Queue: 3 jobs
Job 1
Amino acid sequence: MSGARLNYAVTVAPLMEIVMRTALAVFLLTLVAVSAVAASVPTIAIVDFTSSDYTDLVTKIPEFLSDELVNSGRFSVVEREKVASFMDELMLSQTGLMDMNKTVQLGKLTGASYVLTGNLIDFGAETRDYQIGNYRGRTTFFRLRVAVKILDVETGKILFSTRHLSEKKQHEGQNVYISDSRVPIALAEQSAAEIVQKILSSEAFNTERTPTGKIRITVTSKPSGADVEINGVFYGNAGAAFEVPEGLNEIKVSLPGYEVWTKKVQCREGLEFTAHLTEAFDTKIKVSSDGG
């Protein structure tokens, strides 16, 4: 009996080891796949909206926009707590983001390619009473109007801008009352979903559009005159216009004495941007020839 138990233990141990190794391999492959997907989509930072009136919609709409953009699979969104932390660090208020330079600075600190800002223009309701025969009723029309802009952190240019109106209506009849306490939140959700559809279908972010062929872009560098490689091919020196395939291209800008600047860029006709190079530090360790 003791021999049988020993054989059983010896058999089970390798089997459990194989199962554990297989599970670990699957987990690691999943992490790699998730990381690859995250690296292939642009990152966007979303800040709270501005408004002339105090309302929690200035935070609710950005929250819903964040959810919609993440669920689209086309963007990676910076955590809102992280955005708020950097805004505190820069001593920025929402009104301070009207300065595009500060918005660009916020985007660079968060590591985002784009920054989405917005303004709640109007939220209100209009009630209309009506009567059909002996039946009396009331319809309330709720409206939410917002303005949204998306800034390209690298170029400092506005890639997307829209003013959007969302509406909902509720009906009340005799002896029937419908609470409207959920309407503002429901309208904010609706508005966010509609705005994200506009963003995804816009020319700047519609990655599903079939490329039309070659386009011209202009790449400059600071310092000037750096080498420009596109998809592994040397194209020339920064400061010139280059003809490249429309769509996503990997662009590398390099200059001796400076860190290499590499990014995947969604290229469209007429795109212009500047690669800001960082001076490389000499990490060589000097060894003294002094015997002491």
Job 2
Amino acid sequence: MNFIRLKKYKPIFILFTFWVIILSVFQIIVVSRFQVKGPDYSLPWTVKYTKEIGSFETKPFLKRLIDTKFAYDSTYYYSIARYGYDDINVASTRTPENQVISANYAFYPVFPLLVRIVSFILSPIIPFDFSRFIFSGVIINIISSLIGSISLYEISKIFSNKNTSLQTVYFFLIFPTSFFLLQFYTEGLFIGLTFLSILLIYKEKYYLSIPFISLAILTRPNGIALLIFLISEYLYKKYRNNRSFYKNFRKAEIINFFEIIIIPVAIFMIINFSNFGKNFHYVESQIFSRNILNLSILAKTFTGTISPEFLKLVT
């Protein structure tokens, strides 16, 4: 993509740059102005992971900026990126066979792997390990969120005009939870891979979408939803262009269909039925008490977020 083609995204670049600056400065101001005292008693599990917080104002600006990007699950991503999945310094659980499984297995590998690669590249520039790893993750998410914003703009243009598409990106960025895109989490990377995959699918560039769908699956478990979208959109486009498509479903078309979906399906199957997948499901249920296929755990988690007073009113 040359510079002339990039010029059409100038409004997106300007909007995105202002969003990154304003959001980052806002985060620093908030924690500088309002000191949160630990531990956090809002939920039973937050007590264990929060401690007395030191003086935020005495830290250098860059350190303060880094600190605002690191919280809760960031600890696990940092641990995986720096020490690997079997880091002994994080929480763990034991199986009935007395095997110790690290809580790191609850998190998929692409984001920590990219953080490790970028951190290695930046090692001559940033000597401090912790700051370098967090900065690397934030840079990955900034670039990914920008790609996601441009992809969302292009997706919106398929259904509307340029002004509406720009407004779509604007409201996407100012949505209250959009700050997660700049945190040391997987949200920024995942949103970039997701929107780019959807754009390529809409443009019927199915083979080109495969690596991005595969990376999304390896970034977060719910990336598998992209495969469902790919299949449904592929079949719909074929039917729309040829109403007799299903009646004349030839051998070549069957092969073409399976060529498109085989890699994402294989990746999903391998990661779920491998030793990693077994550890993932065990840690999810034993440490984090969440399992998308376990309805009783889902119900327990949902009701745990509702106050007893509200439950009395509706029961």
Job 3
Amino acid sequence: MYGARHWRPAHCFQVVESAQDAFMKSLKQISTERERQERNSAFATALRLVRTLIGFTVLGVGVLLIVLPGPAFIVIPIGLAILATEYAWARRYLRRFKEGGEKLGAIFFRKREKKSTSAEPAPQRPD
């Protein structure tokens, strides 16, 4: 069926070369994916470092505002929220801070309601 004139050794070399090209392309693709992962890993590490520095800075300013005049009760939770994006311990402290704020708010508003109802007599309608 295949005679001497159909047998082309050059064609066989082309198949081998195309297989080698495909293999080299896959190696390049793997190496570029690995490089991209390494770059992303470095970026993620840098981002974590920046978040940590900003979070501790804001938290430190909040702690200073306990002694200095300023809204420490607002700044400290902001610092904890920034740190909570990276660390579990900050999430726990933030949760405690929220629970304490909710309890304090419930006590404050409950006392306020009692004072407002006891201080003012109920309005009566004229009949």
